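Form 12-C: Joint structure prediction
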Amino acid sequence: MRLPTPYRPEAVTVVHRLAQLDGRLDWQAAARVAAPWVQAVRDNPPPFWAMESLLKEYPISSAEGLALMRLAEALLRVPDAETAIALTADQLGRADFDAAGHPALARLSSSAIGLSKRFLPGGESGGLLGKLGARTVVAATLRAVQLLGHQFVLGETIQSAMKTAAQARKDTPSLTFSYDMLGEGARTADDAERYFHSYQQAIAAIASQADGDERNNDGISIKLSALHPRYEDAQHPRVMAELVPRVWALCEQAAQARINLTIDAEEVDRLELSLDVFDALLARVAKQQPQWTGFGLALQAYQTRALELIQHVTLLARQHRVRLMCRLVKGAYWDAEIKRAQELGLPHYPVFTHKHHTDISYLACARALLDASDVIYPQFATHNAATIAAIQQMAAKAGTPFEFQRLHGMGEGVYREVLKNPLVRCRVYAPVGAHRDLLAYLVRRLLENGANSSFVHQLADPTVGLEDLLVSPLHLAPEPSQPLPVALFGAQRANSMGVDLSVTSQRQPLLDALPTTPVPVVTETDPAALPAAFERCATAARVWREVPVGERAQALRRSADALEAELPRFCALLVQEAFKTWGDAVAEVREAVDFLRYYAVEAERVMAPIELPGPTGESNTLLLTARGVWVCISPWNFPLAIFAGQVAAALATGNGVLAKPAEQTPAVAQAMVDLLHRHGVPSDVLQLHHGAGETVGAALVAQPGVAGVVFTGSTQVAKIIQRALAAKDGPIVPLIAETGGINAMLVDSTALPEQVADAVVQSAFRSAGQRCSALRLLCVHEVIADGVIEMIRGAARELVVGDPAQLATDVGPVIDREAFDNIERHVARLAREAHDLLPPQALPAEPAHLVPPRMFEVKAVADMTQEIFGPVLHVLRWRGEPEAVIDQINALGYGLTLGIQTRIDSRAQALATRAHVGNVYVNRNIIGAVVGVQPFGGEGLSGTGPKAGGPHYLLRFCAEQTVTVNTTAAGGNATLLAGL
Ligand code: NAD
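Section 2 - Result
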């Protein structure tokens, strides 16, 4: 049995979940039970209440709350005092902590250890840094953040955590714990190995104190993404082969000690994979540890298919005859799931967008778990008083044993009340780790405590009345709270539809298209035939320019819809002809669809006549018109998106087009042109001319009547075209050139190394480094350089280099022999001149032209002399002022993309302003420009602008005309006189 698709209408699913609960739950009765608990918490707040009230006063949505969160996320990991001071000043400076008359940070500190008295006397926080000395304020802030961390972490080591647990059991003897070893997911094999040992040690420690059964013993929660550096669907066979035995070793250890081992829930795109891992492990439990009843997994109610997931797990347990412990949570990655669905253009959200829908789902799932008591011992993780009461009610009816779970540091007040009933069982999810590892976890907790919609946040807010706090969630909001991904850009323009390659039913049509997509052979144009072709185009273009802009736009829109419908075929063609990986192919088809729709909208906007104000008696109208015949020359590295973008821009504005695609990728261009012809673009208006750049390309540029040239490719060829145009007689011809660059990323010591490693690997090595935006130069602050380099090296080693038609492949071949030889030559030079940080990995014999990711340490920015178009990264350590590094990058003369990784917001702003670069990306990768969202194009040697996919682009394809009419010419000023 496979799970249903996660992408289905939210409302339909909610109606179904509500039906499941019908007649099974008396919400009002549950609310009556919960009301006294809530009142008791408010009357008698638990320890640490200060933090909750702090977040009530400064919710995460406020500048102060955000500053607090930013400091909590970054400050503890900054190794150098200078940067720590800059970060603290930046965050404290942008927030108005004084608003309530006393600095919140002081209060935060004082609430815990009275730091305020020593370091932060009342007064203004505005001049805090100056008055007290920067180091003192940073020390106090550090301490405050550490204390925040202490609220949520049981101990730095498993031993100290178990000691704290023992303390807690003095008050509540029945309390059990599930330990969680904190940290980011593994990026490298070493990371995975380290986590494995830490889990082993933790289980051994827990086992040493276990003496009951699974329900009474403490247990452990494990994250599969911590145990494998490539825990993702595309690496399915490898995950099954490598991860399953590793987890099984932990399971055996847990089984022998009869403790609960829970596989934690992660992102939606890993769900199917985790189920396969789970199934394989269940089979082993059934065979080798049949007495063990402590195996289980966490289930997220916010997923729209949570209920089916529970049915699936129940079925598996029954098939294998294994009893499980299953934790039901609401889900911790909601914001990330929403963003991913929007970015990928998915048909629906995989999670509920209304909080109360998740609450409904939670209750329906709870019921399903209680109904499966023959194989499942349910563990309900919630801090919501009403949900707790509702579950108690349903469980009492079913007569099923279960336990509650809460996070350490949260929900203490409510559970203090709930546990007054000695029959109620509660387990505490207890994170264990050093400060460095708790930051991401801490931020999640701050978000949860600080979000206005969260129960714990409202509980701490006495202005929220009991009735509102305990209001029934059992009603339907018919529309999602967020626009669907397709509607992201409003009514004017649909977002392109994407594909979730981790879902079998979504990717299968693409894989099926591969064998049925032969790459057609095309015929090259004889340059001698070009003058006649030009004449035909010019004639046809005179008609095309008179076609109303709305009709031309419609032709592009129809083409966009058709391209979207033919996505599998075009993806297959991109994989075969341009050696794109599947992910890159989908992104490229989507970009082409977006270009077509965007320029359709833009043409209608910019070509509308503008009436200009002036003296009475005349009208003044500004008009844009087509220029004539454009030559569009494009590269092989985005043979569909860049090609379609150039052509669509020229056509939308009423121009004729003579297009020359790169000689390496003619078939993709041919397919696109055929499609445009089929949907209303006349064949003489848009003509495709195949052939070499030096012959056909150059001859096109040389045609006497050419009205403009739009070129994307190397700086070198752009210069050749510029000179050719300058040498021509006749009108001055505009050139839009988008060329290459030496793209850099600057990383300071506040950056998160895992985030840097992800961004670098994606930007430098993915797509075989054959993007114009690809990262070529990484400048990393010397105090964190060793660790960051090590992580990138480890992550790069995990990349799969090979046949792009395989889903598992991350890095396909470079485009041809010439490109391959070029890169080889550069690498040979670097091997002599620079320090080799990443020796080449062994490669498969097939296909040809594979280049392994490489990384070299250079001594100066100026050592970078030209763009190397492949997966080759240069690394530079810097110290001192980051501005100086930007100045050196500027001096290279290129200016396409720049990455900045820092948590100091004012620094990011200042560096972005200083950089002479077209596209700046902060705290993310530097690739993947989005049409209408991140218009793309560079400065200096990197191009002329205007940016492709931006609001100024079409203007360059047009001529401007003002028409002034003397409206009094016929004898008098009728308008003026009529107004008297
Ligand atoms: P290229 O410059 O070799 O070729 C680009 C196009 O120009 C091809 O169609 C080619 O046939 C044609 N051409 C070559 N010589 C010509 C001539 N004398 N007259 C007219 N046309 C000629 O580039 P490429 O190798 O295909 O592409 C890679 C380059 O493109 C890299 O430098 C990359 O950075 C750049 N690029 C830039 C952007 C951007 O948006 N800035 C996007 C993609 C690629």
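Section 3 - Comments
Residues 639 and 665 are 6 Å apart (CA to CA). The pocket of nicotinamide-adenine-dinucleotide is lined by residues 633-638, 642, 660, 662-663, 693-694, 697-698, 701, 712-714, 717, 720-721, 738-740, 772, 867, 869, 896, 936-938, 943 (CB under 6 Å).
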